[in-house]
4-aminobutyrate aminotransferase/(S)-3-amino-2-methylpropionate transaminase
Amino acid sequence: MTSTAHKTQDLLERRDRNIARGIATAHPILASKAKGTELWDLDGRRYLDFVGGIGVLNVGHNHPRVVDAVKRQIENLSHACFQVVGYEPYIELAEKLNALVGNGYKSAFFTSGAEAVENSVKIARSYTNRPAVIAFRGGFHGRTLLGVSLTGMSQPYKQNFGPFAPEIFHIPYPNAYRGVTTAAALAALEEVFATDVAPDRVAAIIIEPVQGDGGFHPAPVDFIAALREITNKHGIVLILDEIQTGFGRTGEMFGFQHSGIEPDLVTIAKSLAGGLPMSAVVGKAEIMDAPTPGGLGGTYGGNALACAAALAVIETFERDDLLGNGSQRAAQLRKGLIDLQQRHAFIGDVRGLGFMLAMEIVSDRATKAPDADRTQHVLDEARNGGLLLIKCGIHRNTVRFLAPLVITEAEIDEALAVLGEALERV
C-alpha cells in the first residue's frame, strides 16, 4: 500500500470517528486539487467532475478570474459585516444582479441557499401580511427547519425532525414521464385553495423552474405562466427558486427566463460565487423593501470575499460566452445520453433543460418502477472509471449531470465513454 493510500485510509477512518453520521459523502475519495472540470484525489487519480460541488461550479474549479479576485480582495478587506460598515463589492454586486434579473429590482445577500429561501419567505410574509406558503412535491429548498418544511420529499430530509413549520402546503409538480400534466397540477392548486387555505391567506408560491434534487423535472412554460397569472390575481408573491438552475445551468442565465415571466422574488446561491458561500434574494423593490431595517441580514451574508468572487463569475459569463458553450455541450451530452438509452432498457427517461440533464433508471420501462440499487451501481462504476456523478429523485433513481459550463467537447466525449462502460458493467 502506498503512503498516499495509507493517508487516504487514515483520513477516512478519522472522518468516521469525528464527523456526525448525518453528514453523508457520496464518494469514498478525498480531493487534493481541482481545475476546470477535473479533480484529483490524494492518490493522484484524475476524475472528470460532473457534480461540481453539487452545481456550485458552473465556471469550473478554481477559475483564474475568481482566484485572482479573491486574492486581490483579501489583501484589502476579508470581512467587516455589511450590517456594521458597507463596502463597494456588495453594492456593485447588487447592481449587477438586479440588472440580470429585470428592471426595478433590489437585492439582499446571505450565506447559503436555505438562508436565501428562508428570507424570501420572510419578505413575502412581510409584504403580504399573510402566513401560508405553497410549495411542490419533489421540491427541495434546504435543510433548515423551514427549508425542510417546504421540501416535498420525506427521506432523507424530514426523518424524525418534526414538528415542521406550519402553514406549508404541497401540490404536485408537473412530471411528463410520470403523467402529471400542467392541467392536473393546476387543478391540485385550486383544490388546495378550496379545501386547505384560501388564496387571500397565501403569502407565496415557491417553485424551482427545474426541480433539482427532486429529479431534474423542467416545469412546462405554460405552467409557469399560469402560476404567474394566478399569483397576480390573488396578490400572492411568486418566488422562483433558482439556486440550482441559476447562472447558466438551463441555457439562460436564470431558468425563469425560458417562460418570459417576471418573478416577484428570485433566490440565488450555488454557482453565484464560484465556490465561496454566498446567496441572494433578488426581487421587486416594493416587495424587497417590506421588512424594516434590521429584519434582514446575517453576519457573513455578502462577505467581501464572496462578493468579489461573484463579480468575477459574472465577468466570466459576460466575456467568455459560457451560455453558448454550455448550450453546445448540452446538445452533445443529450445526444450521447439518448444513444445510451437506446442501448439500455433500464434507462427509462432522459430529460432536462439546457445543461441540466438527467437519466432515470428503472427496472422495467413499462411499469417505470424505480431502480435505486442499479442507480447506485452506475455511480460506483462511473467513479471507478474516473467520472464523478451523483443521484437525485424522490426514489434516488436518477443520475444527474452538473458539469461546469467551461467543459470541452473532448471531455464530454470522455465522460460519455466512461459512462457507457459503466452502464455495460451494471
The mean pLDDT is 96. The domain at 3-62+321-425 is CATH 3.90.1150.10 (Aspartate Aminotransferase, domain 1).
